[in-house]
Each structure stands twice: as structure tokens, then as C-alpha cells.
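Class prep. Protein, please:
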Amino acid sequence: MTTFRRPTLPVLVIIAAGLLTSCDPTGKLLYRGDGTFSDRTELNRPRYLIRFNRLPIFQTGAYQFHFRGLPHEKMTLVLYVDDKSSQQDDELKSLQTVIEASLLDSHGNDICKSSRPPGLNDKDGAWVLSGAGDDQAIFWHWQCHNFQAYRLDSYELTIRVTRADPRGEKIFVTPTLEGGGIEFDLSVPEKRDSWKLAFLRGAHSESPDDCPEKRIRRG
């Protein structure tokens, strides 16, 4: 009598992982505006990255970026400090730079509006220095942390360096909006549900050709 063995758990895990890595092709199609849009697939966190032109924070100035078609995800505004790791915390914590951020949506709401002081190292300030070990150092914005983005809204991001550090060290930052992706702690029911949802998304993906990382530049 012929017997059929059930698929083993490792096989199912591999199949599920393959489906979970599927990309959302609508992200590439809908994003318009400044910056570089990247979809790093469901298994990466953050999944979506929108990187804007790097800017100098060793001199005062204002910089604006316009865009629409963000993924319907919780997003965070981050400043990646170029060529600086978090091991250089003492140096970064001594910066006297003041940076104001404004993120206006198409309804006139300033998502980044905050009563906290805008200095990079102000006590209880709007910016939080983060990173670990050799990781690239970042400052993330307290008010612009995990805000809900909407695909149909347009946005205007303004970064103003209103005071430069008097030492004049040439430091550049790359403003980035990031969010999405799966948290791998399955002990929490809500996170288990996100895995199920991602599995269903993968099972109905458009095409394997849509799965490599998406990067698109718009003028």
C-alpha cells in the first residue's frame, strides 16, 4: 500500500518564507516626488525606505522635499548621520546643532509639530540619538515616530538647520522616512496575525518579477 508523508515543518517554513518575501508592486507605481523609494520586502524591518538628498548640518539652511504615494504604514522620520557610528556617541552628544522639522500633509496638518526643543541634544528634545555598536548613528524625531501615512495624501517635508555647531565639523545627514515590515516576536497575538496577513498577501502576489527590491527615483 502506498503511503504519503505529510510535508515536514522545515518545508512549510521555507514555503511560507518565500511567500512572505513578496513585494507590493503598488508601492513602486504610486510613489511620486523627491527621494529614492525602496521596498526591501516583508521580511525586513523597516521594509520601506524613502531616502532624500543628504544635507549639511554644519551650516544653516532650509531644505524642502515634496512627495506622495507613501505606503499605508506607520512611518518614522530619521536622520542618518553619514560616516558616523554609534560608537562616536560622545562626539554626537556634544553637538549644539538645532534642526527643525516640518511634515505637512495635504490637509494642512504638521505631523512633526512638537513642543519639545529642536536641538539635537536638548534635554527632553525632539530628536533622539540611537544606534548600537558599529551601527550607523541616527537621530529620530520624537513627534514623527510611528505616524500613520496614507497613500492618497501628498506631503511636504522641510528640514531647517537654524543653528550650526560652532566647531564647524563637516557633518552630513540623510533624511529618511522608514516603516513597515514584520516583527518576529510570535509570542504576541497581534504579531502572529501580521504573519498570517503577510502570508495571504504573498499567496496573491502579482508576479515573481515584482519581488526584487524596488528603487525608483523621481524628479
